[in-house]
Amino acid sequence: MTILKKTAVFAALMIFATSAVWAQCTNWNEIEKKSEAEDAHVIYRPYLKNKTAADVAALSESDFKLAFTNWQKAYTLAPAADGERPTHYIDGIILYQAKIAKTDDTEQKAAYAREVMKLYDQYLECYPEDRKLILGRKAFDMFYSYGYGYTLETLEAFQEAMNAAGNDAEYILFAPLGELLVYLYQNDQIDKETVQKMFQQSKKIAEYNIEKDPPHPYREYYISGKENMEAKLAEIAKEVFDCSYFVEEYRPIYEENKADWETVNYIWQSLMQQGCDENAAEIADIKATYEELKEIEMRKNPCIDGQRLQTEGEYDRALARYQECIETTEDPEVKAQILYSMASILVWQKGRYGEANAKLREALSIKEGWGKPYLLMGDIISKRSTSACDDWNRRLAAIAAIDKYSYARSIDSSVAEEASERIARLRGALPSREDGFVRGLSAGASVTVSCIGETVKLRFRD
User: Fold this and answer.
1) Contact yes or no for 100/110 (Cβ under 8 A)
2) Exposed (0-12), middle (13-18) or buried (19+): which is 286, by Cβ within 10 Å?
3) What are the structural domain ranges in the chain?
4) Residue 115: exposed, middle, or buried by beta-carbon count in 10 A (0-12, 13-18, 19+)?
5) What angle do CA 125, 129, 135 make, to 5 degrees?
6) For FRET with 380, which of 64, 67, 123, 321 sits at 20 to 30 Å CA-CA?
7) Interval 280-332: pLDDT, tens
8) DSSP letter assigned to residue 457
9) How far is CA 139 from CA 131, 154, 428, in A?
10) HSE (CB half, 13 Å, CA atoms) of 91?
11) What tens digit of pLDDT does each residue of 259-274 get?
């Protein structure tokens, strides 16, 4: 093809394209049938003026047909109406949205939705000064339209709308954008970087209009839209966002409630669950407040405070706080554990073995199948026998202690290893057959260990 021919073809294409745009932007001041276009406009307009799609869908069939037919005629003759306002495009969008509402045929709904999008595109061609507004309205309608909805095409429309409008983007975009991002991410159609980017962009727009001074007339709607978007994105937040997102999210709540333990504890635990580094500088103040309030709360709770005092070696105070705990708690598990802790102090720090055994028996009456109290009972026998029994009775006491350890192992697998270690250490302390022979006793005989008040069945180490 010669250069001359190529130039001619290009010129023809440009003329065709220009003619097409001009055709869809024609107004009635440019056509011979101006009066027909104006008459059709005057007939249909009262049915659309100040009406929503729902209002128009509620018209009688005859009124709707009259309105649609005359709009169609006015639009066909003069798409741009009088050339000063986009009335025919807007009214056409409303009419087709009404048609969508009036039919149950999904294919027909999708076809009408495509007409809506064509009208938006023509509107943009003819009234580019309305681009900021119309791209947003188009994206919004795409999301709620058959054939578009939760698609990448719809997401691209939202992106184009926000890019074009910037801080002038309407509040109506935020809630559907949240729905769209979550759906597409969960269905592996977009990555987390896309979610982060579009969320941050929309969040900045919302915050600009929320913080605007003087207040934006739709400020409350921006707040609601942002909250709805964030509530939906919470479903994927843990997968998509890093620690900084959650710090920023919780920071205002923390600042308003930094003296409230429940709020600060919730925030701190949430940040830890998100994988935040507890030593990160950006949450150092939250950590300090959390630890300060935690200490105060621990001192209020006698159960927790008792544990603290026990750890710090304040055994008498720990026993007193533990007693308060037992008298106030309604949780049987907590009560059993505290009784065990009291028994432990009574054995190892106070040497009050009788009281310790009483606490252990009370704990076992609350919590069945628990091996730890039996281990401690065995330890009590071993300790008591060291100071209270002669050599023979100490050997018999070893049998009694082993019996406790063996029973603990039989009912509670979690203490099996610990029990086995204790049993192994005591086997060498059992009486010999010679010891039994001298006393006229054989294996299996019941023998009372008077120094500790136990009865055992005699067995030997050899």
Assistant:
1) no
2) buried
3) 1-126, 369-462
4) middle
5) 65
6) 321
7) 999 999 999 999 999 898 888 999 999 999 999 999 999 999 999 999 999 99
8) E
9) 12, 6, 84
10) 27
11) 999 999 999 998 998 8
